[in-house]
Amino acid sequence: xxxxxxxxxxxxxxxxxxxxxxxxxxxxxxxxxxxxxxxxxxxxxxxxxxxxxxxxxxxxxxxxxxxxxxxxxxxxxxxxxxxxxxxxxxxxxxxxxxxxxxxxxxxxxxxxxxxxxxxxxxxxxxxxxxxxxxxxxxxxxxxxxxxxxxxxxxxxxxxxxxxxxxxxxxxxxxxxxxxxxxxxxxxxxxxxxxxxxxxxxxxxxxxxxxxxxxxxxxxxxxxxxxxxxxxxxxxxxxxxxxxxxxxxxxxxxxxxxxxxxxxxxxxxxxxxxxxxxxxxxxxxxxxxxxxxxxxxxxxxxxxxxxxxxxxxxxxxxxxxxxxxxxxxxxxxxxxxxxxxxxxxxxxxxxxxxxxxxxxxxxxxxxxxxxxxxxxxxxxxxxxxxxxxxxxxxxxxxxxxxxxxxxxxxxxxxxxxxxxxxxxxxxxxxxxxxxxxxxxxxxxxxxxxxxxxxxxxxxxxxxxxxxxxxxxxxxxxxxxxxxxxxxxxxxxxxxxxxxxxxxxxxxxxxxxxxxxxxxxxxxxxxxx
Length: 527
Ligand SMILES: NC(=O)C1=CN([C@@H]2O[C@H](COP(=O)(O)OP(=O)(O)OC[C@H]3O[C@@H](n4cnc5c(N)ncnc54)[C@H](O)[C@@H]3O)[C@@H](O)[C@H]2O)C=CC1
Ligand SMILES: O=C(O)C(=O)COP(=O)(O)O
Fold this sequence. Notes:
Layout: E1 2-6, H1 16-20, E2 24-28, H2 34-40, E3 46-49, H3 57-62, E4 68-71, H4 81-86, E5 90-93, H5 99-114, H6 117-125, E6 143-147, H7 151-162, E7 166-170, H8 176-182, E8 185-186, H9 189-195, E9 198-201, H10 215-220, E10 225-229, H11 238-246, E11 250-255, E12 274-276, H12 285-303, H13 319-342, E13 347-356, H14 364-379, H15 388-395, E14 398-404, E15 412-420, E16 423-432, E17 436-442, E18 445-449, E19 454-461, H16 466-476, E20 481-488, E21 494-501, H17 507-514, E22 519-526
Parallel strand pairs: 1-2, 1-3, 3-4, 4-5, 6-7, 6-9, 7-8, 9-10, 10-11, 11-12, 13-14
Antiparallel strand pairs: 13-15, 15-16, 16-17, 17-18, 19-21, 19-22, 20-21
Helix pairs in contact: 5-7, 13-14, 14-15
């Protein structure tokens, strides 16, 4: 008998695959304290949650019998994925079931915000017939800026078109074809932020999207902009939003999600321009039924030895193979992540080439890990070596794997090349005896740098003073240089600098570098 604990409210109708299957005992206990959960979890084979239960490393460590965690929804930021993977626990989610509900909730919030509906209702409840205080604005003809045009963002964009809004969107994986199909204009993130009369965010919460709308972004927005967040708290900096509303720059905000949840007292709610719901985007009868069916189905599949439909973690590599290729898995992941930071346009092709010793190995797990590194910095932790290829297919990125005998003098060489409409970028890495992983080539330039932490790749003209200007600018930004290499194709021609620095180089500092004389491009790389 497999024991399943359901620790967040799931639709009873949606749980039928599990309730009807033989050999499962389901306990629904949705109000457990952390201590109670820690105490009971060792008795269970499966755990089903939504966003409220914090499945942290402590809980996972205590879960000695647990084989599978099902997240009845999209976001998996309440689950410590690496702790689960380390302990061999499979995590599955339900990525599609609540898309429609979240999109409808976003539209409801957008319209309620434009017409002050919650505020007017509250006033009427307080026995005031006040028609003057709640003059709204129309949506028709206004511009909606959408940041993150994935499942939900795309649905919102289509609905906004129905309201006769103009839609401008930014998503690193947005293709011309998709933009055309949805009838949206494509822009950079800065262009979207500056163009919107209304702005709505639909990205996961990642290192790259944390405080995406912060003090600097608010400065560049249109005065009187309205902001909607039905994705994740933390994408918008709540303190910066508060200040922008108080200063009059932002006319109002509609929030379904918050940096810390749950709460009952929040300073943003003291502002009359803010309307809010307690994380209700996915809370419809329909969505809850579908997401519960999806995860319950996967739990049954897992225990009856069938392939699960929505795996979020776990490698499919046999242990013996894993041992041989393990060091290259990490190198591949780092190279994938490195090349993502070099991509300045939609990536259409992703090629991984193996040479030297690597020719004799089964390299497909390395390719999957490289692809995972590439996609993860944009799509978050839900991308893993199991599902990375699936994500690439969905995004229309062609992935190839090749072996060649040309290892350019290295014992083994792993090269990742991306092809975009605007050009190609390439990075190679190797494992050096005693020194570990190194990046040895970027485009056609030879470098030698450990793929770690904060790097800066600069293309410049080989002219006196260029290096000094970069050094001065970084000093002004209080960024310390740890190592620096320069290389050039020919005297006075194209040249590069590869720096490792002591802290994250933010977009403002990168822009400053790009504006320097003789500097053609600068890219911050976070590994
Ligand atoms: N309020 C609620 O109850 C619900 C919230 N959500 C949240 O909504 C968000 C979106 O969900 P889905 O559309 O299903 O996910 P998705 O994975 O289909 O779409 C996310 C999109 O964000 C894009 N993205 C990643 N980094 C970006 C960046 N720096 N700038 C712009 N775009 C970036 C990705 O390329 C991707 O297309 C997630 O955070 C999810 O957890 C989802 C369902 C319900
Ligand atoms: O699916 C998601 O990402 C959500 O945010 C929905 O969260 P919930 O299942 O309603 O707690």
